[in-house]
Amino acid sequence: MIGNLVEAPPLTELAQLVGMSLSKLKRLFRQVFGCGPYGYYQTMRMNEAASLLREKRLSVSEVGYALGFSNLSHFSRVFEEHIGMKPKKFSAS
User: Fold this and answer.
1) What is the pLDDT of residues 56-75, one digit of tens each?
2) TM segments (predicted)?
3) What residues contact 52, with CB distance under 8 A and at least 6 apart?
4) Which residue, 7, 32, 56, 83, is most buried by CB atoms nearer than 10 A?
5) Helix 37-54 crosses helix 11-18 at what angle (to 10 degrees)?
6) How far is CA 47 from CA 25, 42, 58, in A?
7) Any idea where the domains of the chain sit in the sequence?
8) Which of 3.90.1150.10, 1.10.10.60, 1.10.10.650, 1.10.10.10 would CATH assign to domain 11-92?
9) If we measure between CA atoms, which residue out of 40, 49, 57, 55 comes closest to residue 85?
């Protein structure tokens, strides 16, 4: 799941890979990680975005596109939900 942050893994394939039903995968995932698979994926994606902005000094658009966002406004909203500030302000701080 973390190996490809550009595209969310299909949950049905993930469930087949680990040999359990989709509902069981979601339930166990929530028990272990405190959120569903997609929420976990988005958190990891935004942590990577924060790292790219801060450590690699990439622009907001470079990071958004590198992580598979085609709409930078959507990237900015998701980033703010997870990190607590807009990506431009984050990279400037």
Assistant:
1) 999 999 999 999 999 999 99
2) none
3) 58, 62, 63, 66, 67
4) 83
5) 110
6) 23, 8, 14
7) 11-92
8) 1.10.10.60
9) 49
